[in-house]
Amino acid sequence: MKQENRPFASREMIEIKRLWRLTRKTLLFGLAFLIVFLGVGLVYQWVGVRNDLPKYKPPGELYDVFGSKMHLYTGGEGQSTAIFIAGWGTVNPYVDFYPLYEKIDDHTRFAVIDRFGYGYSDLTDRKRDIDNIVEEIHELLIKAEIQPPYILVGHSLGSLETIHYAQKYPDEVKGIVLLDGGSPEYYANQTPLTGVSLLQRFLVQSGVARTLYHIDGFAESLASERNRLEQLPNELKDLDRMSSLLKANNKNITDEMRQSQLNAMKVLEGKKPLDVPMTIITAGRFGKQDQDWMDSQAALTSWSSSGNQVILEEAEHYVHHYRPDLVAKEILTIVNE
């Protein structure tokens, strides 16, 4: 019986070896293709960065803050200043808050903060701890001679810096407007999406993102929560693309996400409620908003001794790109109080 099985066993082993050789060749070919593809992508991104950098000029002023440069864009006139603090990962705040400028600059001063790693500010080795971030914003406003009182306008995760600034420097703050900003309680229970940030950084650095921008409609679909950039002129749409390919998910932005849960817990240790008016503008997301988020938004009013909520049903997360007129109205309401 053993002798009769040998030819069959031999044929089976030959077939297994043939399949292994074919599999190995396929894997080696795939690996070689991946290495070449990544190499070409890295070179493409490097060349693109070299071409973009000379055109990436700050529209505002740069100030030395703890040994690195921070960017501040200002405008308008008035006795109070609206301080704009962008949400996490919104690479260019100057572009992001553009829909609000012309609607408030006749009534109040405004200043757009570029945290380290954002917009036209440098990268920093300082940890993205909430105390460091707020201290840097405070120092920047001093260096730029932007006098209080301030109306702090924070978007998304920027709510943490906004609230904590009012905790640390209460005499400087006249009021707060949160643009679909999350509550500290909400963020304290969220696992930081650091992996998502690292993946996005890889897509940029490998040249994949730069390639995808050549596909018609890609930029608009990527900005679906920003009303597909419909509020921006073409030159700012191009600047938005350039900013993303130069600075998206760099080490400071990634660390900011990594620290988000701890930062929220630190805010929870501070003063509550704040003795300033607070308006929470919540995106209804066309009736598709998560109920847990909506409940946390309603509860967020408890962070102020005089808090109120405005729900914009016809808006997504970047509410100021959908109804800048209503957002500006809420800001100016606090300015005029």
Verbal overview:
With 337 residues, the protein is an alpha/beta fold. The chain has a single domain (61-335), classed as Rossmann fold (3-Layer(aba) Sandwich), CATH 3.40.50. The protein has 14 helices and eight strands. The protein has helices at 2-52, 93-96, 98-104, 130-143, 159-168, 184-188, 194-205, 208-212, 218-222, 234-247, 251-258, 260-268, 291-299, 324-335, and strands at 61-65, 68-76, 81-85, 109-114, 150-155, 173-179, 274-283, 304-312. It has an eight-stranded mixed β-sheet with strand order 1-2-4-3-5-6-7-8, sandwiched between helices. β7, α13 (291-299) and β8 (304-312) form a beta-alpha-beta unit. The longest helix has 51 residues, at 2-52. It starts with a helix and ends with a helix.
Along the chain, the helix and strand elements come as: HEEEHHEHEHEHHHHHHHEHEH
Integer count of domains: 1
By DSSP, the count of extended strands is: 8
Instruction: Classify the fold: give the CATH topology.
Output: Rossmann fold
CATH superfamily: Alpha/Beta hydrolase fold, catalytic domain
The rough form would be described as globular
Low-confidence stretches: none
CATH architecture verdict: 3-Layer(aba) Sandwich
**DSSP strand content:** 15-25%
| Rg estimate, integer Å | 25 Å
Ends apart, CA distance between termini:
99 Å
- The main sheet orders its strands as 1-2-4-3-5-6-7-8
Largest sheet: 8 strands, mixed
Q: What is the gist of this entry?
A:
With 337 residues, the chain is α/β, with parallel strands linked by helices. The protein has helices at residues 2-52, 93-96, 98-104, 130-143, 159-168, 184-188, 194-205, 208-212, 218-222, 234-247, 251-258, 260-268, 291-299, 324-335, and strands at residues 61-65, 68-76, 81-85, 109-114, 150-155, 173-179, 274-283, 304-312.
